[in-house]
Amino acid sequence: MDTIASLFSFITTPVSWVIVQFHSVYGKVFGPDTGWAWGLSIVSLVILIRICLIPLFVKQIKATRAMQTLQPEMKKIQERYKNDKQRQSEEMMKLYKESGTNPLSSCLPILAQSPFFFALYHVLNGIATGSTIGVINDSLLASARKAHIFGAPLAAKFTDGSSKVEALGASLTDVRVVTAIMIVLMSASQFYTQRQLMTKNVDTTVKTPFMQQQKMLMYVFPVMFAVFGINFPVGVLVYWLTTNVWTMGQQMYVIRNNPTPGSKAQAAYLERLTKHVTHHGKASKRSERTIIKAIVAKGRDRNEFERKFINGLTKAGLVAQTDGAVVKGEAQAAAESEDGVATTAAAKRQQPKRQTKAQRQSGSAKATGESTVGAEKEDSSEPTTSLEKSDEPQDAKPAAQQPPKGGSNGRSRAQSGQRKGGPQRPKSPSKK
Q1: Which residues does 60 contact at the CB level (< 8 Å), separation at least 6?
Q2: Residue ranges of the chain with pLDDT lower than 70?
Q3: For residue 419, how many C-alpha atoms fall within 13 Å in the half-sphere facing its CB?
Q4: Nearest to residue 225, comparing CAs of 237, 211, 238?
Q5: Cα–Cα distance for residue pair 225/237, rounded to 1 Å
Q6: Are 18 and 43 in contact (CB under 8 A)?
Q7: CA distance 121 to 232
Q8: What distance in Å separates the CA atoms of residue 226 and residue 196, rounded to the nearest whole number?
Q9: Are 186 and 241 in contact (CB under 8 A)?
Q10: How many other C-beta atoms lie within 10 A of the C-beta of residue 123?
Q11: Quick one: CA dihedral 256, 261, 265, 268, positive or negative?
Q12: Backbone angles phi, psi at 132, to 5 degrees
């Protein structure tokens, strides 16, 4: 413990100072010696630390998105070296190095919290042993030793004996029940957070070593919390349970609003986005335009859910632009009426009114007359300026154009070897 204290002494004093400041505020409301004052001080410390780690969390999200852009290359490597696992791992590491990504970037928030965690552990251990640490003086030490959370002192552990627990003014049963419940909740929240990440926010079409590591951590971390949790003071359990709940809520927000491409979370998000955009006719939020811009930029590399989203916009008469904006398509714009009222693009075509028999006959007679007059205009060599009736019947034709009568004689002459028109074939002299 002395080694840990020496390693984290640079942060023990700031952590104790923050706890004391929060305790002075909550002590005025709940009382300085109550468990609510000291417990809420620890919870507020967690919230403050996690707010300070938000830039690191954003960096983690960007690194995760960079890993997702490499998934097509990862898939090619898997197919190329599917029979050589060692070569496959070497090529994966080479790809990570060339792209500047780190598959272990998801562990950065946990690593960044480690100094605060060990500093808080050392502060609470000093309270349990009755030694002052940091800015916690004798009066604050006495107040902290009197504080209980649901009957369990802040400095009590699951493995403490009855004599030590009685010295802190509590019963062994209360301490073990409270610590056991908190350990179970801490492990369950960690497992749910990791399972939510693996089942909803992972592209299952690509199998990578990183995914196998995440799957392993999903079962390893809860077991680690359960094993080491029995040696944590109640105050540390409060800290770790609070940070697990914060991580779970933060991850739920990210999965809902910025899911991994190809995951189930993306399918649900794009379905909600389609309904929102088609209802309002535009993408109102900046985050929505960013995602639409990324989908448009992919082109033919879009996954199944992204193609379904683009098709849904097309059916609604909308078009996604390269800058992420959504505008009305040409068909939808043409369907806008002059007074600005939009008409449905898929409206049914109105059927013409049914005509009576007299109307149909008069219409066909009129069409026949117009076609006949047009044919006479084309045949006449002189332009006509008015429609006049001709004295000659329409069927009258020049005699030269009349077909020859007596079709039977023509056929008989044709059968006898004579031609109908032109020079006749000379007869050959008869042989006697």
Answers
A1: 105, 106, 108, 109
A2: 1-8, 64-69, 71, 100, 102-110, 203-214, 330-354, 363-432
A3: 7
A4: 237
A5: 10
A6: no
A7: 8
A8: 20
A9: yes
A10: 24
A11: positive
A12: -75, 150
pLDDT, tens digit, 9 for 90 and up, residues 328-360: 876 555 555 444 444 444 444 455 566 777 777
pLDDT of residue 259: 84
Alpha-carbon span 277 to 280, nearest angstrom:
5
Name the token pair of 424.
């006749």
Structure tokens at 191: 């497992």
Cα distance between residue 268 and residue 125, in whole Å: 47
CA within 13 Å, CB half, 421: 1
Q: Which two tokens stand for residue 72?
A: 């097509």
Predicted local distance difference test score (pLDDT) of residue 377: 46
Residues 6+ apart with CB under 8 A from 98: none
Give 419's contacts (C-beta < 8 A, 6+ positions apart): 425
How far, in Å, CA of 232 to CA of 306, rounded? 47
Contact 317, 282 (CB under 8 A): no
The pTM assigned to this predicted structure is 0.66
pLDDT at 107: 67
Q: What is the 3-state secondary structure (H, E, C) of the chain?
A: CHHHHHHCHHHHHHHHHHHHHHHHHHHHHHCCCCHHHHHHHHHHHHHHHHHHCHHHHHHHHHHHHHHHHCHHHHHHHHHHCCCCHHHHHHHHHHHHHHHCCCCCHHHHHHHHHHHHHHHHHHHHHHHHHCCCECCECHHHHHHHHHCEECCEECCCCCCCCHHHHHHCCCCHHHHHHHHHHHHHHHHHHHHHHHHHHHHHCCCCCCCCHHHHHHHHHHHHHHHHHHHHHCCCCHHHHHHHHHHHHHHHHHHHHHHHHCCCCCCHHHHHHHHHHHHHHHHHCCCCCHHHHHHHHHHHHHHHHCCHHHHHHHHHHHHCCEEECCCCCEEECHHHHHCECCCCCECCCCCCCCCCCCCCHHHHHHHHHHHHHHHHHHHHHHHCCCCCCCCCCCCCCCCCCCHHHCCCCCHHHHHHHHHCCCCCCCCCCCCCCCCC
List Cα–Cα distances, 178 to 126, 153, 181, 229, 338, in angstroms: 21, 10, 5, 12, 72
